[in-house]
Amino acid sequence: MSRQYETVIGLEVHVELATRTKIFCGCSTAFGGAPNTHTCPVCTGMPGSLPVLNKRVVELALAVGLATGCSINQYCKFDRKNYFYPDNPQNYQISQLYLPICHDGGVEIETADGGKKVVGIHEIHMEEDAGKLIHDEWEDCSLVDFNRSGVPLIEIVSEPDMRSADEVIAYLDKLRLIIQYLGASDCKLQEGSMRADVNLSVREAGAREFGTRTEMKNLNSFKAIARAIEGERTRQIDLLESGRPVIQETRRWDDAKEYSYAMRSKEDAQDYRYFPDPDLTPVVISDEMIREIRNRQPEFRTEKKARYIKEFGLPEYDADILTGTKRLADIFEEAVAVCHRPKKVSNWLMVETMRLLKEREMDADRITFSPEHLAKLIGLVEAGTVNGSVAKEVFEKIFDEDVDPERYVEEHGLKMENDTDALQKTVAEVVEANPQSVTDYRAGKKKAMGFLVGQTMKATGGKANPAAVNQILREILEEKQHE
Amino acid sequence: MANVISDEVIDYVGILAKLELSPEEKEAAKKDMGRMLDYIDKLNELDTSDVEPMSHVFPVHNVFREDVVTNGDDREQMLANAPEAKEWQYQVPRTVE
Amino acid sequence: MELWQMTALELGRKIKDKEVTAVEAAKASLAQIRKVEGTVHAYVTVDEEGALLRAKQAQEKIEAGELAGPLAGVPVAVKDNICTKGMRTTCSSRMLENFVPTYSADAAERLTDAGAVILGKTNMDEFAMGSTTETSAFGVTRNPWNPEHVPGGSSGGSCAAVAAGECFLALGSDTGGSIRQPSSFCGVTGIKPTYGTVSRYGLIAYGSSLDQIGPVGRDVADCAALLEVLAAHDCRDSTSVARKDTDFTAALADDVKGMRIGIPADYLGEGLDAGVRRAVLEAAQVLKERGAVVEQFDLSLVEYAIPAYYVIASAEASSNLSRFDGVKYGYRCEDAEGLHHMYKKTRSEGFGPEVKRRIMLGSFVLSSGYYDAYYLKALRTKALIKKAFDEAFAKYDVILGPAAPYTAPRLGESLSDPIQMYLGDIYTISVNLAGLPGMTVPCGMDAKGLPIGLQLIGDCFKEKNILRAGYAFEQARGRAPLADVGRLTEAEKKEGEAR
Prior knowledge:
The structure holds 3 protein chains of 3 kinds. Chain A is an alpha+beta fold.
C-alpha cells in the first residue's frame, strides 16, 4: 500500500431501555416468554389499535441524554418510518426523525496514547424494537414472534469522531458504563440489549472530505465489532487502491466468515417516508422535569471511586476495578450494606470472584449470585462457623449456583468443630501419637507446631477451628513442659 | 397536464407502496396521479412562508401511560386471524435468501 | 305507528316503561331488514342470532334495574370499520373479508354498555375511501329514497340503514364528510363531533388526524343522546380529549334567540345545485324567524381545503394501510414467489382501485424530495384554514351551509372521474381539517324526491350550539320522514306489471 489511509467511524448504538412494559402498550418486556404471549392489539399492529407512550421511556431517554451532555429538545415528536418487513407489524416503525429528544452531546474516552478525546453524540432518539424472525430450516419459511415488538429502544447516534477499533470499544465501554450506572439498561451485547451499527469510511491521510461510508449491522460482541472494522477498512482500501468506488450501502457482518455482505435488494428503496405520527401527541419537557431527572442522577464512576477510597479505605486499584462494572459496584455496595465489612467484601470480589470470572470466561455483567449470600458467607467466617478453606469452597458454590451459604454449610456438615472437649481429646491423641514432634517443639523447633496442627485438622476432616487447635496444642505442650 | 408521471415514478411508488399494477392500471395511475398533483399544485397559490405546519389541531401534549403491565394472553384468537401460522407464530415466506 | 318507525328515544322510553321489550324491538328491526335489505343492501353483516341473544341479555339487565339509560334495548348498527370483538369487521374490503377482531372499539363498547343492541355491521366505501359506498367490495348500497341513486359515503350503509328503518341509530365515521354527506343524501341526521371527542380506539384508521366516529339517527335528539353515550375520554387513544361538557341532550332547547349564524358566501357560489341552494336558504330563514341573527360572510380559503385534505389523508392512509400485508390477518394471495412478491400480490388483489389510488398518491407525496412541497405545504394550509375558522367563530356561533353541492347522484355516475367526486366534499372537508364539529339535518326534498341536507358547523367543543340550532330548526319544520322502501318496491312492482 503506497498511500496512508485514515479510518473514520461513527456508531449508531441501540439500547433497550429497562422498563417493565413496552413503549406504546402495557405488554411485558420480560425476556423469554412463549411466542406471542407478551402481545396485544397494539404491538401486533391490529387494525384500529393505537399507541400510548410509556412515561418511563421518556424519563430514561432523558437521563441518558443528560448524562452524556446532550441538549434536550423540550418539544419533541414521534415520526413514522415506513418500510415493509414481517418483524414490523404495522410496516412502519415509530421513531423520531425531525425532533429527537436529545442532541449534541458527547462522552470522553481515553485514546491509545493515553490522551483524552471527546466522541460527539449527534442525537439520541426513542423508538420501538421489532419482533423476532426465526428461519425455519425445513419448510422454506420464516416465523414471526412479536414478544419483542414494541420494546423501547434509544438510538444513540455518534458523530464520525472515532478513528480506530480501540476508540470504538472505548466509546462503547464508556457509554455502557454510563447507561448501566443510570439503570437505564443492562446493556448486554450478547443478549441484544445493546447493539451497535458501524458507519465506516476511509480517506487518504490529511484529506478533508469524508470518503463514502458503509453501514455494518449484526455485530454481537466487542470482538466482532473490532474484526468487522478491520475487515471493512481493508475492503474499502482495497477497492480504492484498485480504482473502484466504495458504494454507500448497508452490509451485514458474518463474524464466522469474517466478511460482510451487501444487504441490497431492488425491493429496498430506502425511502422511509417519515412523517409525524398523527396517533401520538408531542412531548413537552419542562425545565422542572429536567431538573428532577438531573437530581435523580446516580453517583457515576468517578465519584463512586473516590467515595470507596475515602469511605471504605479501599486501595485505589481495588476501587477502580470495583467501579469498572456497574454489576460489581452494586454487589459490593449491597453486600457491605448487609455485613458492614467493606474490606472483606472487596477481597472476595477482587480475588475469588476475579479468579472464577477468568476461569469461566465470563464478564462481570453476567454474575448472578446475590450479594446477600456473599455477606452471609463473610458472616460465617467472622463467627468462626467455617474456616477459610471451607469458605472458598462454599463461595464457588455461591458463584455458580447462588446457594445460601448458611443452609449449604448446615446441609453438608461443613461447620467448624468448636466442641472443645472433643477437640481436646483429639489433640491429646495427636500429641500422644507424635512424641518426636513434641520433643522437637520443646527443643525449640517451632515448626513442629505446624505439623501437629495439620495432623489435628486431618483428624477432624478439616472442620476444626485452626485458632482453637493452635491454642489447645500450645496449652498441652507448654503444660507438659512445666511438669 | 403540468405534472407528467413517468413509468419510473409509478414503478418506484409501487415498490414503496407494495402494489403491483397491471399495464392498464399503470397507465390509469399515471394519468390519475398527474391530474391529482395538478390539482394539489393549487396550494402553491398560497403564501405559507410564515406558517408553521399544523399536525394536531389542539395543543394536547404529554399523553402518557404508567409503566404497568396489563397484557393478557390473547394469542389464540389473535393467531386465528393469521393466513398461516406455525408453532404459535406467524408464518411468512422466507425472509433471507 | 309501527315499532320500527319510532325514534330511538321513543323506543327507549317504551322499553323503559315495559310496553315493549328489547327482544321485540330487535325482532322488529330484523323484520324490517328482511323486508328492505334486498333493495337497500345497507349491511355487510347482519348478526341475527347474536342480536337476539344480546337483546335478551339487555332486557334481563333492564328488568334487573342495571340498565336505565335512554338507549337501553335500542337496536343499532355499526359501520364496518369499527372493531367489534368476535364479529367480522371488513372495512368493506376483500382484504379483511374474514377478519374477526379480538377486541371491541371504545365506541362499540360504550354502545353495549348503554344497553344498545348491535344488529350488525354496515356497508361503506372500502376503507372509508369514497363518497358513494360504491367502492365497497361487497356490492353497492342503494339510496332508500330511490334505489337508482347512491346513498353517499363513506358511511352510506349506516345512513341508508337509518333512513330505511333497518336500525334506530347507527355509528358512522367521518374523515372528510363521510357522516354528513350520506346523511344529507339519505335524509337523516348525522354528527361529526369535535376531533378527540369520541375515542378512535378500534376505529380502523384511514386518515388518523381527521377521523372521528359519530352518530347517525332519525332526528337531532336521537343523535344528541347517542353522542352523549359515545363522548368520553379514553386513555387508549392519545388524541382523546377529556371534556366536561358532554351532556349534549341538555342543549336541546327550542331557542335560537340572539344566536349568531354566518353563511359563507363561498358555500353558495358556483357548483351548488339551485334546489339545494333554495332549501338551505329557506332553512336559514326559518332560524332567522325564530330570532337568530343570520348573515352572509366570506370564509375564504374554501377551494384549498380539498387539495390539502387529499395530501394529508392519502399520506396518512398510505402508512395506516401498510399493515395489510397478508401476514397477521386478512387476505393473502396464492402462489407468491418470495416475501416481497407476496406483499405486492396480496395488496394488489386485496385492495380495490380507489384505495390503491390513494395509497399511491400518499406514498408519492411522502417520498424523498416531495415531503416539504406536498405534505408540509398541506399542513401549513391546514393551519391557515383553522385560522380562517377561528376568525369566523369570533363573529358567529354557528356556520350554516349545504352539506353537499347536490343531492344523491345516480349509481355509477361518480367513480369515473375521481376529482369531480372529490369536489363533492367541498363543504364538509375543511371541517375535518380544522377539527370542528359539524352536523347534517334534513331540510327538504329536491324535485326528484331526494333529500337535501343542511350543514351546521360549530367551533371546537361547541357541539351544543349546532345541536340547539338543529333542534330549533327541526321543531319548526317537523321531523324528517323515513324513506318508505316498501312503497318504492311496490311502485317498481306495479311498473313491472304494467310492462
